Amino acid sequence: MRKQGYGRIVNCSSVLGFVTLPWRGAYNASKFALEGLTHTLRIEMRDSPIKIILIEPGPITSDIRKNAIPHFEKWIDWEKSALSEKYRKMFIPRLYKEGKKDRFELPASAVTKKLMHALEAKSPRTSYYVTTSTYLAAFLKGVLPTKFMDRILAKV
């Protein structure tokens, strides 16, 4: 990219890269790490011809829940957890729900549309939100105290 005089690196994170939801600690952590890496790289590359861009979807139609179940069952002994009742009441029903879309869920093509814009725009933004929930989470994070935001996210 340096040799050709331009380039773009686009990382796809998540709304859970800047706000957290309960029961998703590993996923939240991986997306926060990706966001930190992307922001660092953008600053380090600011004097180069390479643009560093972040896409932050929210709920997107995919098989992530279905694909996560075998790993959850293999690695999480939730029944012996100190939080087993919370797992039983709050997380397990969500994990195993079939076919029910999240309220603001969009098809994967919504991410593709933002990706194409990030790749083709003359002057791309540093980040692109995709779903309504991502825009809403960013707004609320910017205006609400952390403790209040935590109370809201704990109920989602």
SSE diagram, text form:
Elements: E1 7-12, H1 25-44, E2 50-56, H2 64-75, H3 84-95, H4 108-120, E3 127-129, H5 132-143, H6 146-155
Parallel strand pairs: 1-2, 2-3
How far is it from the N-terminal to the C-terminal residue, by CA?
42 Å
Q: Average pLDDT value?
A: 93
**CATH topology type of the largest domain:** Rossmann fold
Strand order of the largest sheet: 1-2-3
Q: Count up the helices.
A: 6
Spell the H/E element sequence.
EHEHHHEHH
The share of residues in helices is 40-55%
Describe this structure in words.
With 156 residues, this protein is mainly α. It has 2 domains: 7-61 and 105-155, NAD(P)-binding Rossmann-like Domain (Rossmann fold); 62-100, no CATH class. It has 6 helices and 3 strands, in the order E-H-E-H-H-H-E-H-H. It has helices at 25-44, 64-75, 84-95, 108-120, 132-143, 146-155; strands at residues 7-12, 50-56, 127-129. Strands 1-2-3 form a 3-stranded parallel beta sheet, sandwiched between helices.
Descriptive terms for the model:
156 residues; 6 helices; three-stranded parallel beta sheet; 2 domains; Rossmann fold; mainly alpha
Give a quick precis of the structure:
This protein has helices at 25-44, 64-75, 84-95, 108-120, 132-143, 146-155, and strands at 7-12, 50-56, 127-129. The protein is mainly alpha-helical and 156 residues long.
